[in-house]
Specification:
The protein is α+β, with helices and mostly antiparallel strands. The protein has helices at residues 16-27, 39-48, 99-106, 137-148, 150-167, 179-195, 206-215, 265-278, 295-298, 315-330, 335-352, 356-380; strands at 5-9, 52-59, 62-72, 75-78, 110-116, 124-132, 170-176, 224-232, 235-245, 248-256, 284-289, 301-311.
């Protein structure tokens, strides 16, 4: 019906002809200029993520595109979800299947995407934000931002001096690959998830394994993962795990000592990382989805992606609508308000957890947390 044929294979079953086509598609489609679309990311994630595969789309005997993905039960997700910040069909513009066609060709009960890249009229738009450096590099960016948002950046300069006076000289290191430092960061993130009542995406195990595997990977065309750290005296105050390829630097997992929040060590680390990485030729620093307050002061660029769920007609769709109605009733008429929050929580839980029992447990906890939040806000309104 679509004119496309699909073959489902493991990433390590792709031959040099397929990888050559993959690289050609990346070169011909600027929208795919992110580390998540690089062959190296798929090779590593394809080994680590449970039930991982690559859909190879062809038409008239020619390869038309690729979609790396994973299955959880009968549901289909982008490979590496919930940690994959950009995904879509790797193809030349306008030549690969659409989101709906991908869902039809793969045949799962549901295709869930949170940051789909490409032309699509399904789902809801979301913005990711970036720092785009000009010809005058980091110094030019900082001068413009400080002139535009003087109070914010003066506060950070004072925070830097305060932390240095309290704890000792500040030291930034980037290009770090020490597994123990990554474990320190993961422990910080897990503590943050507990404190904020969010699903612990590292409890399942394979997500932490993915970060460790990427940290030891040196891929083609500059693909890699590394960490940057900020020390004050002898004390480690913040770590950030990032992906990078070409001139793109994607900030992925930041973590800092909560007791030092007043000094903004995470923000200081991001600034110092950009300064050092800019000297190596990186020009775009991607901060992922907008939302955290500091990003509006940093970022001078944005791109739109799509969040969507494509559900096959039948029981899955009926169950989805019933769940929304139940949440609407329990949330005292605030089902629309809960919809996005619960959907995103569920997407993360479903992607992490590989057993039905763990997915069900996580879903009940997510729904309860969302309802409690709405009820609390209603009580104080």
């Amino acid at each position: 019906m679509t004119g496309f044929k699909v073959d489902i294979v493991k990433a390590d079953q792709l031959g040099e002809a397929e990888w050559t086509a993959w690289r050609a598609f990346l070169a011909g489609n600027p929208a795919l200029n992110s580390p998540y679309f690089r062959p190296s990311f798929t090779r590593v994630a394809g080994q680590v993520s449970p039930d991982a595969a690559v859909a190879v789309f062809s038409r008239a005997g020619q390869i038309a595109g690729f979609f790396p993905h994973q299955k959880r039960g009968s549901a289909i997700q982008p490979l590496g979800a919930p940690m994959n910040d950009y995904h879509g069909v790797i193809a030349r513009p306008g030549e690969g299947p659409t989101l709906q066609q991908v869902a039809d060709l793969l045949g799962g009960s549901r295709l869930n995407v949170t940051a789909w890249v490409g032309d699509v009229d399904r789902g809801e738009p979301r913005n990711t934000v970036q720092v785009e450096l000009g010809d005058d590099g980091y110094d030019g960016w900082y001068a413009e931002r400080r002139a535009t948002f003087g109070k914010f950046f003066k506060d950070k300069e004072r925070a830097r001096r305060s932390m240095e006076a309290e704890l000792g000289p500040l030291r930034i290191e980037r290009g770090l690959h020490d597994p123990k430092l990554l474990d320190w960061l993961i422990d910080l993130k897990r503590d943050q998830y507990r404190r904020t009542n969010r699903h612990d995406i590292f409890a399942c195990g394979w997500t932490a394994d993915l970060l460790h595997a990427l940290l030891q990977t040196e891929g083609e065309n500059g693909f890699g993962a590394s960490m940057a750290g900020l020390w004050a005296g002898d004390r480690l105050t913040a770590i950030e795990f990032s992906l990078h390829a070409g001139d793109q630097y994607h900030f992925w997992f930041p973590g800092y000592e909560p007791s030092l929040a007043r000094c903004s060590p995470g923000i200081l680390l991001s600034m110092d990382t950009m300064r050092l990485a800019a000297e190596l030729g990186y020009r775009t620093f991607d901060f992922g989805f907008e939302g955290e307050h500091y990003k509006k002061y940093f970022c001078n660029g944005a791109r739109t992606v799509r969040e969507a769920i494509i559900v096959r007609p039948g029981l899955g769709a009926a169950m989805s609508q019933a769940a929304v109605k139940a949440l609407d009733l329990a949330g005292e008429g605030k089902g629309e308000r809960l919809r996005a929050s619960v959907r995103r929580r569920w997407a993360a839980i479903e992607a992490c957890e590989v057993t039905p029992a763990n997915r069900f447990k996580g879903a009940m906890q997510a729904a309860g947390a969302a309802l409690n939040k709405v009820r609390s806000s209603s009580a104080t309104a």
